[in-house]
């Protein structure tokens, strides 16, 4: 029987797919990214269910799994959206429209959009692959003003969020499986996921929960010497400061030790500083950039290879969806810089909307500008609310039986340790789940709150954690904490030994 005949009478075998799980890129199958993993997928399914029935014990899903402020009703910064909307619709700037538009937009927003468009042309055009030179000059100016040491626009790349910058630099650094990259435990899984994709060797170093998640250089040295003894070519150290998921903020002294360590061990320092304005104890734990600390040290260290990352997704801005960020590549071999440029050019350019927001993040309204008061008031309102919510949720977690939680000195997360009854761990095992994952699934089913199990970030053997943002809107926060408290009591009673 011909194929057509077999199709006609419905007896044809299903056509074998060309691309299948068994023959696709195996490195992709090894990738894990818990921030949007099992819990987040189940939360979306429950959200769909809520839209159809009210059969669940809660009315909404609260996504505390991801640092996505505007998903949880945080308002965008007015000035930023004014300038962005004018850049998107330049006819608004035409003289014949000015008398109407100037009733809706402040003078400094109109002027900023005109200046940007002089350098951009159209937001619909490809830009320079490194990012628009004018914006890179503004980023360099921001870094120089922040640190007190010069930054070169040629060493700055605008990126599709910090994620794209991190993945680009790691792909340059990783030669083959023997390449080792030091990543913290716990870590933000962008790093472990990208190393899986590149088939590189993650070299974990433990953060000390008993010391506010501090980093001990002695532990770094042990990790490096063990890895190198096993034939791993350890080349780079990832530092997330302020920390995700742990919220720690490094002291200047600790940073100097880390810089000396990298310099003597011939290790490239990758400084993920996307939370540099999410600083909740600025007196006790201020933010210092690694670039500033490096340049403040003896000039012998100034040749250390350092790549620093920043993003528009965090801080008080939270423009995650616009995908904007940058990295500054310091003291990188010029021939390697050419390779970085080549790879950037393969993707043509980062999106221009994200670039505009990077410009606004780095050069916001200044004292005396028409929009300064409103801008400052919006930033302060968001900042003080984040700080209050951080402390409220920390206190809530520390009030729970068997739970301890370090304060968040920075970032947007808390990472409490949960001590679970043996029966709960046994039940988790029976369900084929890690104990913290099982606890988080039970929390989601009972409250609609979606968090991420500590196993998605890595944790010290024998400990269990979960990560939650403190982003739910402040007017819902007391209910949010009460729901978590009630769930925890029920869970602990259910599994009490
Ligand atoms: C430490 C760190 N670096 C980089 C990024 C990437 O940011 P971009 O949006 O600029 O690519 C994130 C995002 N934070 C993720 C997303 O939300 N919750 C998280 O843990 C992050 O937490």
Automatic annotation (TrEMBL):
The keyword Cytoplasm does not apply. One of its GO terms (molecular function) is pyridoxal phosphate binding. It comes from the Eukaryota. Keywords: Aminotransferase, Pyridoxal phosphate, Transferase. Residues 117-473 form the Aminotransferase class I/classII large domain. Belongs to the class-I pyridoxal-phosphate-dependent aminotransferase family. Alanine aminotransferase subfamily. This is Glutamate pyruvate transaminase.
């Amino acid at each position: 029987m011909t194929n057509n005949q077999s199709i006609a009478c419905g007896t044809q075998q299903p056509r074998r797919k060309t691309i299948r799980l068994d023959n696709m890129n195996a490195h992709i199958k090894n990738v894990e990214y818990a921030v949007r993993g099992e819990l987040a997928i189940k939360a979306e399914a429950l959200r769909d269910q809520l839209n159809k029935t009210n059969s669940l014990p809660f009315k909404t899903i609260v996504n505390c799994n991801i640092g996505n402020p505007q998903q949880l009703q945080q308002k965008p910064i007015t000035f930023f959206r004014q300038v962005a909307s004018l850049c998107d619709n330049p006819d608004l700037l035409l003289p014949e429209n000015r008398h109407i538009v100037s009733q809706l937009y402040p003078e400094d927003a109109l002027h900023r959009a005109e200046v940007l468009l002089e350098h951009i042309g159209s937001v619909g055009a490809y830009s320079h692959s490194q990012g628009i030179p004018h914006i890179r000059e503004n980023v360099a100016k921001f870094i120089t003003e922040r640190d007190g040491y010069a930054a070169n626009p040629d060493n700055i790349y605008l990126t599709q969020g910090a994620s794209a910058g991190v993945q680009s630099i790691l792909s340059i650094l990783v030669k083959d499986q023997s390449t080792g990259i030091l990543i913290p435990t716990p870590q933000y899984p962008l790093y472990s996921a990208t190393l899986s994709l590149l088939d590189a060797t993650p070299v974990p170093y433990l953060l000390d929960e008993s010391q506010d998640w501090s980093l001990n250089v002695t532990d770094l040295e042990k990790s490096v010497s063990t890895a190198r003894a096993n034939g791993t070519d350890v080349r780079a150290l990832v530092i997330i400061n302020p920390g995700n998921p742990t919220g720690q903020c490094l002291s200047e002294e600790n940073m100097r030790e880390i810089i000396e360590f990298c310099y003597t061990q011939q290790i490239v320092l990758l400084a993920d500083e996307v939370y540099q304005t999410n600083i909740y104890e600025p007196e006790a734990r201020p933010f210092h950039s690694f670039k500033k600390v490096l340049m403040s040290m003896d000039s012998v260290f100034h040749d250390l290879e350092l790549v620093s990352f920043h993003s528009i997704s965090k801080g008080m801005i939270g423009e995650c969806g616009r995908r904007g960020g940058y990295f500054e590549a310091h003291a990188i071999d010029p021939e390697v810089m050419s390779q970085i440029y080549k790879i950037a050019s393969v993707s043509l350019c980062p999106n221009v909307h994200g670039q505009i927001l990077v410009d606004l993040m780095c050069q916001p309204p200044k004292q005396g500008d028409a929009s300064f008061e409103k801008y400052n008031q919006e930033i302060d309102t968001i900042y003080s609310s984040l700080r209050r919510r951080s402390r409220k949720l920390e206190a809530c977690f520390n009030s729970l039986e068997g739970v301890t939680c370090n304060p968040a000195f920075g970032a947007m997360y808390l990472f409490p340790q949960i001590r679970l009854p043996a029966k709960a761990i046994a039940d988790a095992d029976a369900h084929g789940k890690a104990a913290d994952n099982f606890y988080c699934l039970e929390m989601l089913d009972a409250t609609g709150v979606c968090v991420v199990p500590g196993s998605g970030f890595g944790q010290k053997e024998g400990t269990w954690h979960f990560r939650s943002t403190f982003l739910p809107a402040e007017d819902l926060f007391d209910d949010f904490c009460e729901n978590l408290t009630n769930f925890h009591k029920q869970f602990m009673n259910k599994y009490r030994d």
